[in-house]
């Protein structure tokens, strides 16, 4: 459905508040966003055929695909709203423009996965593996407790200026205890996110917006934090190079 792809892209244009308001133009109550055109058994049959599974532009909403091996699968523009993918192997999978609203991917393997213009608001990624994954979608209000972003790239795509600045939005997300060692989080929207005890050792947080975020106990050893906005953030230590430090709340 081409309109699904267009909406997914439009949500990542500059002006997050305005962009997210465009959700009002999408009827999330339609079968495309609520029903499933395949059963779990049918997905298993596709896997059994061998080779990467192609489930692009399909509706898989609400399905329980937990524990399946979908490594390298093509899930571009697939709708997986409210789906269960607990422990599912999605290593190297393509999830560009996919919809994962309130999906449960606890413990999923998303290492090397591509999540460009992905809509995953309110999804659960607790203890998920994002090693070397590419994330540039909307993950607002998602849970990443204990997730591993080591080597992942969630930065803004500076090559797509004609379409706007594509970047990861993790506004109000929970990354407590997450590991993002040597990850690229430059220009990521982390406003009001919970980053307590997250490990950003060696990470790039250049111009990341962490205003209003909870940074208590977070580790920034060797991290690049130049121009990282921490206005209104809850901090318990100095963050070198950060801006608006005088507006942060020391606790």
Question: Mind sketching the topology for me?
Answer:
Blueprint: H1 2-10, H2 16-20, H3 31-34, H4 40-48, E1 114-119, E2 134-138, E3 234-235, E4 249-250
Parallel strand pairs: 1-2, 3-4
N/C terminus separation: 49 Å
Major sheet attributes: 2 strands, parallel
Main sheet: strand order? 1-2
Total helices: the number is: 4
Tell me the series of helices and strands, N- to C-terminal.
HHHHEEEE
Question: What is the percentage of strand-forming residues?
Answer: 5-15%
Structural class: little secondary structure
Using the CA coordinates, give the radius of gyration: 18 Å
Percent helix? 10-25%
Mean pLDDT: 90
Number-wise, the strands total 4
**Could you say which overall geometry the principal axes of the C-alpha atoms support?**
elongated
Instruction: Extract low-pLDDT stretches.
Output: 8-22
Can you tell me about this structure?
With 251 residues, the chain is mostly loops. It contains four helices and four strands. It has helices spanning 2-10, 16-20, 31-34, 40-48, and strands spanning 114-119, 134-138, 234-235, 249-250. The strands form two sheets. It has a two-stranded parallel sheet. The longest helix has 9 residues, at 2-10. The model is unreliable at 8-22 (pLDDT under 50).
């Amino acid at each position: 459905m081409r309109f699904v792809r267009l909406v997914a892209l439009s949500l990542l244009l500059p002006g997050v508040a305005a962009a997210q308001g465009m959700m009002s133009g999408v009827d999330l109550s339609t079968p495309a966003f609520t029903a499933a055109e395949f059963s779990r058994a049918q997905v298993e049959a596709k896997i059994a055929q061998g080779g990467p599974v192609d489930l692009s532009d399909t509706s898989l909403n609400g399905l329980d695909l937990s524990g399946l091996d979908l490594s390298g699968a093509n899930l571009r523009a697939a709708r997986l709203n409210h789906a269960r993918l607990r422990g599912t192997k999605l290593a190297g999978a393509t999830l560009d423009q996919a919809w994962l609203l309130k999906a449960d991917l606890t413990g999923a393997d998303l290492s090397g996965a591509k999540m460009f213009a992905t809509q995953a608001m309110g999804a659960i990624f607790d203890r998920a593996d994002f090693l070397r994954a590419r994330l540039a979608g909307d993950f607002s209000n998602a849970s990443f407790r204990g997730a591993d972003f080591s080597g992942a790239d969630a930065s803004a795509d500076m090559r797509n200026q004609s379409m706007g600045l594509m970047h990861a939005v993790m506004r109000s997300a929970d990354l407590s205890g997450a590991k993002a060692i040597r990850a690229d989080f430059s220009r990521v929207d982390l406003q009001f996110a919970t980053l307590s005890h997250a490990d950003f050792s060696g990470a790039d947080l250049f111009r990341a917006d962490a205003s209003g975020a909870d940074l208590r106990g977070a580790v920034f050893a060797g991290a690049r934090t130049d121009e990282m906005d921490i206005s209104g953030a809850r901090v318990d230590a100095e963050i070198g190079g950060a801006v608006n430090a005088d507006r942060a709340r020391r606790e």
